[in-house]
Amino acid sequence: MQPALPDAPLRALLRAPLRAGFALPLALFALVLLAMLVALLLDGAVQELRVSRGDVALARAQAAAASALADLLAGPADSTLLTLPRGAVRGSARVEKSDTVRVTVQALGGGLERAVIVARAWAGGVRADVTTLALLRIVPDSGGGRPALRVSRLPGWWWTQLP
Amino acid sequence: MRRTPGGAALAELVVACVLAAVVSAAAAAAMVGAERYARRVTASSEARRTLSEAELTLAAELRSAAADSLRLVGDTAAEFLGLVGTSAACVATGRLLVLPPALSTAVLPVTVWRLPPEVGDLVAVFDSAGGGSWRTARADSVASRADGAGCTPASGLLSAADSVARRPVTRLRLDRALPPSAGAGAPVRLLRRGRFVLTRGGDRSWSLAYRRCSGSPGCGNAQPVAGPLASASDSGLAFTLVEGEPRLEAMLRAPRREALTPGESRRLVITLRNRATGAP
To answer: pLDDT digits over B151-172, tens only?
Structure first.
């Protein structure tokens, strides 16, 4: 003979079989589907964003390099460049937030100069670097009243982008 | 007698199945749509990446080219004198030209090679005489020399550290003598004739390819650079030289993904700043 349980509700609870629910598995299944869907969309969007950011960074770096070269050509020449021995290097750098432009001028002798402009730009965590080489020479400036010097590009071939 | 809920009733099961079917159908439709969209975006990104790659290659090579050395062959090929490298003469006497090391400890290496120099390359040396012009000759021999080949730190173009480390200089023997006014310190560039062309590969896909055109008669084999691009009949690559202006336009198009939808395209405008030998 079995011993009697203390009260009736507890007896009923123990006798009842476990009820198999469907709401939780269905909700989990729906969640997994939703997560996959969002992941697919996000992956596409991230790819697009990275390509676009790379393009933007490159365009900004190219513009910065071109601007620095234009400044170099437009401004008056530093007469001390003429006195530098061949191979001597003179440089300057400009930093704007995280973007940098470094201009390095190397004397080749006889008034010939070799300018290397390295521009680095960032766009949303994507970096782009552009290196430009320009062959220049220092010539007398006939434009002003006072005798002065200016930077001129070499005749013919004078400009390239370096790898 | 008391009834206990011992499982799902038939009505509950039917409702659950119908609900599950409706939710699954909606989810499947959404998934298919999203997957198709994702595939389209991925393909589009891939096409844009390919176009960017082609654009960067064309821009890097053609921007450095001299306007008067460039000619179009049909509208899907551009022949040009491409830059092999730039430097400055460390030694320039007669037919001998010695260039400082490209692998240098200097902050600013004088020599930069985009490709290794080879026999047959065109060598342009700047001659300061008169208003200044570029003198050209062909390289009869190209050698890498660790002994400096006459290039010393006294030239200012070889650092003492590079000299001690015996970093190899490049010694070129030219097919003609340089004038004395194109001496040490003269800017030097090496050039090689090549052609960018739209070609069809063995897998029947079209791509941007490079063909070397100097050294042997005609042009060499096409080496794919970027692709796939749209076919020639679908304007995969089209060059246009703007009349009277030093400007080259290149239109690049990715292959069609669907019959009626044109592929991604990109228009590249290249300003040709250089001239081969002429006046500014």
So the answer is: 999 998 998 999 999 999 999 9
CB atoms within 10 A of CB A16: 10
The more confidently predicted of residues B3 and A126 is A126
CA angle B275, A60, A123 (to 5 degrees): 150
pTM score of the predicted model: 0.77
In sequence order, what are the residues at sequence separation of 6 or more whose Cβ sits closer than 8 angstroms to the Cβ of residue B137? B95, B122, B123, B125, B174, B175, B176, B178
* Average pLDDT of chain B, as a whole number: 86
Contact criterion met (CB < 8 Å) for A30 and B66: no
Q: Which residues of A touch B128 (CB under 8 A)?
A: 110, 112
Is the separation of the CB atoms in B67 and B272 below 8 Å? yes
Q: DSSP 3-state assignment of A39?
A: helix
Asked if the peptide bond before residue B224 counts as cis, ω within 30 degrees of 0, the response is no
Q: Report the C-alpha gap between B116 and B220 in whole angstroms.
A: 17
Share of chain B above pLDDT 90, in %: 31
Of B138, B167, B191, which marks where a domain is finished?
Answer: B191
pLDDT in tens, B181-200: 888 899 999 999 999 999 99
Question: What CATH code is carried by the domain that includes residue B112?
Answer: 2.40.30
**How big is chain B by its Cα radius of gyration, in Å?**
30
Using the 3D structure, point to which of B134, B158, B191 is the last residue of a domain.
B191
Task: Give me the phi and psi of B149, to 5 degrees please.
Answer: 50, 35
Range of the domain at B114: 81-191
A100-156 pLDDT, tens digit per residue, is 999 999 999 888 999 999 999 999 888 999 999 999 998 887 766 666 788 889 988
Any domain includes B3: no
pLDDT tier for residue B280 given thresholds of 50, 70 and 90: very low
Residue of A nearest to B30 (CA): A37
What is the C-alpha separation between B90 and B9, in angstroms, rounded? 96
Candidates A33, A88, A109; nearest CB to B31: A33
Residue A82 lies in a domain: yes
Cα end-to-end distance, chain B, whole Å: 110
